[in-house]
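Worked example

This section walks through a single chain of length 143. The input is the sequence exactly as stored; nothing has been trimmed or padded.
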Amino acid sequence: MPEATMPAPRRSLAAQLLSYAIVGLASNLAGYLVYLLITHLGLGPKITMTVLYAVGAGIGFWGNRNLTFAHQESGLAVGVRYLLAHGCGYLINFALLYLLVDRWGWAHQIAQGLAIFVVAGFLFVSFKFFVFPGVNRSGAQTP
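Given that input, the structure is written out below as tokens.
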């Protein structure tokens, strides 16, 4: 009888938050500096955010899957869930820029800085419970 494959041990919530914060701070700081440069050169805030969001989401998949959540699932389903979470995150980011900049007149630099933190909080919860959920030995999902 073949041996059952045991899933990798899950990381604690504190370890996940710390890893997520480190990965997020590094990637978002770099992305925000590029955002400031590109908007300073004349490209609009929402177009710049759209391009950088797509690039950051693509890079973040590897870091969050492997470093933050130690997720072992393979296949299309995890990628689809990741895209859905980021689609919602993008809409939140876009809505915040529209509301804060276009409607309320905030400086786009401040609005985008705030949006980074709002979207990061949303994405952490989405990643933990929807995109990269834990799996126990019986194969059932755990928080």
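What to look for: Strands lie at 134-135, 141-142.
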